[in-house]
Write a structure and sequence with these properties.
The protein is mainly beta. The chain contains 1 helix and 25 strands. It folds into 2 domains: 73 residues, no CATH class; 211 residues, Neuraminidase, CATH 2.120.10.
């Protein structure tokens, strides 16, 4: 009997010690990313019971005890970078830039934001394409090799296709889409557009004023189902959207499939399974997702 009491006491102490270490370890931030489990802004309050094995060695090594604990659900994890911004974009190397509420442009360097000495209304970009900025006077600027180059015209929306080609929606064009090449803007079919995301001039996705989603294949426009507030084309097979309810969706097989995340303003893609997002409150998040299978 006394052996049973001693073993029970040892067993209880070991469980508490292990749980204490686990709790302390999980509460510690990882670099600049704070683990944001339970944050209502991205609906991470939905949880599943997960199992952590705590193994106790005894003389005959036959005893083990499994302790359940709560973690975010997940086919992916959102990590907070904090901040208070209104727009985000990537440059050609994948560096993250953000505009704050005072229109100041910042670049994320490891664990801090660095002001870039320029102001703007909107930014866009992408890996391999480059960073574009619309200035306070609606002029277009393109960051290449560390230097800003001005693009002529008054622009409402503006993005790079790489190789010194750009897509833009001019301020006075009734939402008409134009292609900038060799110093000249050339009109493309389509009007009443408010924003776009593209891989090339023959694969463009755009939103009209009524939030309907359209795709241009270089010849004609085709309407997709649903309405979105923002869209990001990642690859030829992957299109991500922010719905009118501020939720995240992936377009697949003719419909929009909900993804994890809510209360978002914009998403930019690092690759086909990692994203940055900015929330309605201006906070920036980084998401690690499994490979998306269509």
């Amino acid at each position: 009997m006394k052996y049973l009491v001693v073993f029970t006491l040892f067993f209880s102490i070991q469980i508490r010690a292990q749980l204490g270490e686990s709790s302390e370890r999980r509460a510690k931030p990882q670099n600049i990313f704070e683990l944001s489990f339970g944050q209502p802004i991205l609906e991470l309050t939905q949880t599943l019971i997960s199992i952590e094995d705590i193994i106790f060695s005894t003389l005959d090594n036959r005893f083990s005890y499994k302790v359940p604990f709560k973690e975010p659900i997940l086919n992916h994890r959102w990590l907070s970078l904090g901040g208070k911004f209104k727009d985000i974009a990537l440059d050609e190397k994948g560096n993250l830039f953000a505009l704050d509420e005072n229109n100041l442009l910042y670049k994320l360097l490891e664990d801090h934001w660095v002001y870039q000495g320029i102001k703007g209304k909107k930014i866009s970009g992408g890996i391999g394409k480059g960073l574009c900025l619309i200035g306070l006077a609606d002029g277009g600027f393109y960051l290449k090799n560390g230097k800003w180059t001005k693009i002529k015209g008054k622009l409402a929306s503006f993005l790079s296709l790489g190789d010194d080609k750009f897509l833009g929606i001019e301020q006075k064009s009734i939402g008409r889409l134009s292609l900038y090449e060799e110093g000249t803007w050339l009109d493309l079919p389509g009007i009443n557009l408010k924003m776009m995301s593209a891989l090339s001039e023959s694969n463009i996705y755009a939103l009209r004023d009524d939030y309907s989603v359209w795709n241009f294949d270089g010849i004609r426009w085709k309407k997709l189902v649903g309405k979105m507030k923002n869209i990001t084309v990642v690859t030829d097979e992957i299109l991500i959207g922010i719905g009118l309810n501020d939720g995240v969706y992936q377009y697949s097989d003719g419909s929009w499939v909900p993804m994890r995340g809510n209360s978002l303003l914009k998403i930019v893609a690092i690759n086909d399974h990692q994203f940055y997002a900015i929330s309605l409150s201006g906070e920036i998040w980084k998401s690690f997702l499994p490979q998306i299978q269509l």
